[in-house]
């Protein structure tokens, strides 16, 4: 009976893996016969982990995606920074902010302030997406219009602020670049390529701006309220 259940589980996972063939092609993945079965085993393990998580009582669900045939070690090597980076944002003066302040706020429920989830692909540019996501939301809150901003401009142009394109960077340093360069272009005007290229920034097309950059001590909520 146990062997039958195990075989059924493997067949089910193989079926799901087969159904993801279309996605595999879309993500430019081509396997040899040997690697196919290695990826199938990894996929099976990940699917089992996803199913177990979704059976529990959690605030979020997990699902299959283009990374489901990768081990965490492979994902970490390709998409996560291997070493911590020092934050070097310039100091600034806190701006007073009068209360009262809510205990929590969910901007997803307040209006159109957040862009959809984006995909950095095989480029280590997570720092650019953190930067644009923040600036997109703040600009939308201030001006009432949500405009997707250019990660590619940061990948191509922010090296003088100790950023390294597809090899990592920091949002604080990206904000400094935007401040000194006097703006960030839109995604439409400077689309994402997922690789580093020559800088094509045009200040006259800048759509979002940064006036000042400052650091907040980790977990200092009162410091955040003072902004």
Automatic annotation (TrEMBL):
InterPro entries: Papain-like_cys_pep_sf, Pept_cys_AS, Peptidase_C1A, Peptidase_C1A_C, Peptidase_C1A_papain-like, Prot_inhib_I29
Residues covered by the Peptidase C1A papain C-terminal domain: 101-224
Signal sequence bounds: 1-16
SUPFAM superfamilies xref list: Cysteine proteinases
Keywords: Disulfide bond, Hydrolase, Protease, Signal, Thiol protease, Zymogen
Domain Cathepsin propeptide inhibitor: 24-75
GO biological process, one term: proteolysis
An example molecular function term from Gene Ontology annotations: cysteine-type peptidase activity
Family in the record: Belongs to the peptidase C1 family.
Protein name (record): Cathepsin H
Organism placement in taxonomy: Eukaryota, Metazoa, Chordata, Craniata, Vertebrata
């Amino acid at each position: 009976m146990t062997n039958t259940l195990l075989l059924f589980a493997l067949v089910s996972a193989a079926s799901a893996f087969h159904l993801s063939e279309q996605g595999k092609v879309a993500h430019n993945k081509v396997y040899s016969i040997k690697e196919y079965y290695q990826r199938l085993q990894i996929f099976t393990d990940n699917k089992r982990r996803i199913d177990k998580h979704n059976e529990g009582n959690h605030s979020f669900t997990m699902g299959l995606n283009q990374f489901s045939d990768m081990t965490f070690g492979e994902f970490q090597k390709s998409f996560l920074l291997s070493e911590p980076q020092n934050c070097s944002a310039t100091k600034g003066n806190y701006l007073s902010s009068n209360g009262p302040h809510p205990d929590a706020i969910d901007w997803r429920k307040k209006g159109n302030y957040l862009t959809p989830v984006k995909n950095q692909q095989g480029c280590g540019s997570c720092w650019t997406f953190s930067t644009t996501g923040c600036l997109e939301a703040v600009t939308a809150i201030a001006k009432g219009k949500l405009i997707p901003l250019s990660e590619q401009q940061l990948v191509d142009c922010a090296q003088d602020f100790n950023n390294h394109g597809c090899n990592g960077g920091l949002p604080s340093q990206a904000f400094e670049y935007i401040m000194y360069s006097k703006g960030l272009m839109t995604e439409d005007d400077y689309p994402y390529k997922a690789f580093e290229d020559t800088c094509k920034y045009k200040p006259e097309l800048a759509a979002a701006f940064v006036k000042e950059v400052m650091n907040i001590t980790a977990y200092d909520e009162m410091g955040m309220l003072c902004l």
